[in-house]
Amino acid sequence: MLTLTALLVFTLASTSTSCADSSWLTRSHSCVGSPQVWEARPSPGKGLGVYATRTIEPGDIILSEPPIIHFAPSEFRDGVAYPLNDITATLQASFDALSPGEQAQVMSLHAYMTPAEKAGDQLMAIFRSNAYTTGDSLGLFPKGSRINHSCRPNTSQYWSANLGRRIVYANRHIEEGEEIYASYIPLLHPHEARQRRLDQYGFKCTCSACALDQGARNASDQRRQDLAKAFAAFESQLTLSVPGSVVGKRKARKNAEASIQLVEEIEKEGLADYYIKAYHIAAVMHARAEDWKPATLFANKGYETSLLADHNARSAGTKELQALTNHLINKWNDHLRDKAMEHGK
Predict the structure, then answer these.
(1) Residue 60: left (phi > 0), alpha (psi -120 to 50), or beta?
(2) Where does the SET domain lie (predicted)?
(3) Most buried one in 24, 54, 75, 161, CB count within 10 A?
(4) Domain around 323
């Protein structure tokens, strides 16, 4: 009788952390430390950029960096950003507590200032232009701030509360000499909306997605808007309960088919930050349709993708995907066992 093993063996790309704890820029803007994974050097039209000094594989850690400034801001308003005027005193106190060398690192960062701000606070402009969210707080990361934006980034990032570090890792193969990109904004918006969100950083994006001809860009925009709607529609259906009615089963089958399209469109757009969410949805939708093989494979794919960032499987999200995969393996085994018993009659 055909069975599945409950033990899944995952082969992860070897990881290497560079420049996390060392002096990070020489006078030639090169990252120092061993092994050398990236260097900061001029990027045409973008000031400094970050470039791979060797081939980097998916899952390789490019940067693991603690925040040089870190504190909880006041209330966040989506689309408006944090009301930074309310945190000026906290920011200044955090900056004053730094060593002269650390202060120099902060003040060397790019600061976009509107005409009204030209005579304003440069420290606040630097912080607004470079800070990242870290859970419920904000953090400033001088090394990672050198990574330029793309709407199809080749890295993903997350805040590790356990380590107190922002981790940047490759989400696809990166060639030696290729520029490394991150994303500054949510990416399921059309081109014009993304450009407006980037106004706070003072530049217009010219990445591979934004540089498409009008027809291809319109198609990309439509995909991103459709993906945002699909994620919202699936959100209320993420339960493993199998429908009992004929109508419910028919709907479950249609949702399973739609989830495959969701995965295909996410991968076509190269939106790696959304891969795990899409794989999770596809796994659950196929489980609701009692299609155990693709359900298990999608759950496993989500788990493997999650492990690219969370190598030690410590996060709640990774543990959830691991449990889901094991549950679906058991369901698939039960299904195969029942079919074998039927054939044996």
Answers:
(1) beta
(2) 36-185
(3) 24
(4) 214-344
